[in-house]
Each structure stands twice: as structure tokens, then as C-alpha cells.
Amino acid sequence: MTAIDSTLYKAVTANVAEHPGLSGFHLLPDGLDAFAARALLANRAERTIDAQYYLFHDDLTGNLLLERLLAAADRGVRVRLLIDDMDTAGRDQDFAALDAHPHFELRLFNPYASRSSRSLEMITRFGRITRRMHNKSFTVDGVVTVVGGRNVGNEYFSADPTVEFGDLDVLGAGPVATDVSAVFDAYWNHSLAYPAATFSRSKPSADQLENLRTRLQSIVAQSPSSAYAERLRDSPLVEQLENRQLALHWGRARVFADRPDKLLTSPDDRSTHMGPRLRADVQDATSEVLIFSPYFVPGDTGVDWLASLVERGVRVRILTNSLASNDVAVVHAGYSKYRKDLLRAGVGLFEAKAQSTKPKKDRDPHWGGSSRASLHAKTFAFDRQRLFVGSLNLDPRSAVLNTEMGIVFDNAQLAGNVGDWFDARLRDVAYELKLDDQDNIEWVEHRADGDRIYQTEPNTGFFKRMSVWFARLLPIEGQL
To answer: What CATH code would you report for 3-242?
Structure first.
């Protein structure tokens, strides 16, 4: 089948013809919509599916999406699934069975040498095994892609009642998908990408694949009334895309990605890094920089850079997790030591609340509806003209250890929408940090009945705060 035979290809290229040189974008802030986009695109795939993820959980949403990928392979679509090996323990046989399918290839990136003693290998191969592929992309028929901060798992797609990551993906159509495909191919063909069959104890049988297919289909059959099944039935997203009715925002796009060799070179070798190129892009901002970074450890260099932006008149505001909402408390220890310097420099600093105070039906779909919310989006807006959406956190791990990717696209309406959300909603979902007269940090909660001020990390206990204080003493910032 050629590209021209694909319904998606025909629809997207017809749209691109009206916007030469540009790509179309549609933001996916809602977890259910983000899942539906992937699943429905998999349903419509006719030629290829290329999916690359840091985490692909063995849970409800992971299995539902895996079933869609297998169904696509069964009808002749070439499926390539590349997963970092960090979260795959105990799944070698299932993965090998999928890899044995004539139309389904599965590779693991930077795999553990030992399939049974991972903890020991974390010690013996620390400098190599702790560097991971953090990329996230899902590309169908070479013309539509979904890129952003979400891994594949319940907490990313509004399926976990106890915690939900407030996240953001972007659906891109047109030339941007070609560029994302090139990034995927670079990782897929790299020496660190190993076929799943490499780790199978024996050659998978046809029965193993059939048993896996039956198990996945059973999971799907048991969830016809779930929110996911409803969204898949009701979502018009892909149908609108095919009929050229989806609200796409058009603009020039640049895909930023670390080269996979980053995991093999010294952290001091920046030749493989996307960070310096992206930083130069942000440096062009003249009036405003808005940053969403769930794991934020700027270091002295980052503080100086942000301060330099403020000094030349750029308004800088940052949203990151509070101690209560952060799912990796040790990262908070690395971040907290820089808060005063940032505030003194004039940077606006906001920390996400762990819980919504509104009834679930009234909660912001950008933020989450579970009992505990945690920021996970990695997004930057510059001058309300350009927007970055991707996998990059502003911390040492993303900057120098792991590989990352993302898209910067020029579209004033989308970038402006993010800025408008920052202006209108930030006070509801986050604490504003300020320095009091004694140069101590205070957390201001803006409420309808008046501001409430906290002198310590809100909604945290003494022992949690003490553990973070102790972690600040450890020489681990380079690993955060």
C-alpha cells in the first residue's frame, strides 16, 4: 500500500495544500481525549504506526492501547513499538510474542543485561543504566503524530482515581509528522534498540500470541461502559480530521530532539543535546516566557539565565509542583534550594496544589479530576506567539542524562490560549510564592473569600518536610 492509499494521508495532504509549508496542531489537555486520539488513530491506521515511549504500563489503558496496536497489526498495518526498558520487568515473554507477529515489531531501548536482577544492575552499571530514553511520540501513516508529556498508563489518561497527572499533548498533522518520524527512525535503528525476541527464554509459539490476544480482547470486553469506551464511541476527533473538519491551528513547526547517542556520550558533551538549541529559541523572547515544568531544578546556571531574561524586561512565570503534589519528593529537594534566588531575581514562581477544591464535575479539564492532582506537562510559551510541547523537564536529568524531544510551533492563538489560561486559572490551581519582610518564603493561596498565607509547605507534614531538608544535603543534584 502506498501513502496515497491512506485515508488519513489524503485528508492531511489536502489540508496541507491549503497551508503550504505549515503543519496543523490540535492541543490535547484532557486525559480521556489524549487516550482517544491514540486509540482512534490506531483504529484508522492503514500503513504504519510508530510509537515511542518511556513508560508503557501493564494496566487498563496500557492494555487497551496495546490491543488496538495488535488489532492494527492483524489487519496488515506495520506496527513498530519502541519502549525504554525501565518499566518492562516481567513482560519479556509477552513482548517477544508480539515481536513474532509478522506485522508487529517491538524493541526495548537501553535494556538491562540481567532480566531478573535489575536492582543489582542499578549498582554495577549505574552510569549507563540510569540514563533513559524519555521520548514520547505516536505517529500514524506518517502524516499524523501525537507528541507531549504523557507516557502510557492510567495516571496519564484520567483512569486512576487516586492520582492524575495534569498533562498536555499536541496532535500534529502534516510536515511535522515527517520530522517526528525521522526522530523515531534514528532511535529505532540505533545500537541501543534491541528486538524483544532477544530477551525471550525460548522462541514464542503461535499459542502465546493467541493467548495474549485473547487476554487483551477480554480486557476490552469487560470495559464497554467505562469512560474510555464511551470516549472512543463518542469522540469525533479522527472522523473530523479525515473529513477536514477538525479545528487545526496552522503554523511552522520545528522538532527538537536529543540524538540517541546522548546516552553513550559524556554528560559534558553537548553535541548530541537539544537543550542548547531550544534555549537559544527561548532566548529570542522579548516580552514573556511561561514555563510548565513538573520537575524543576534550574541550578545556578538556570537561575542566572532566567534572571537575565527578567533584567531585559521579559516577564517570566513558572508553574511547578508543590511538595504535596510532587510524586518525586527528592526532586523537590533539589528545586527548593533555588526558590529564594528566583524570587529575588523577579521570577514569578507558582506551585501546583495537590487537590482540587472544586467538585469533580466543575474541575478544570486541563488539571485533573482524581482525588490528587500532580503537574506533569512540559510546556513553554514565548511572547504568546510560540509554544513548546514535549517531554523535557527543566532539570539536570532531562538536560544531560536522558533523551528528550518536543515541538516548537508558531501559532499566536494556541500560545495565547496557554497564556490566557495562565492568567485566568493559575491562582485557582496553584500557590503563589513570595518573600516576606524577613526574606522568608510564604505561600499565598488566592481564594474567593480572601487570600490565605502559609509559612511552611502547604498540606505537608513535619516528617515529609524533614526528609526533603535532609535530601538537600546529599550530593545528588546531578541525578535529579
So the answer is: 3.30.870.10
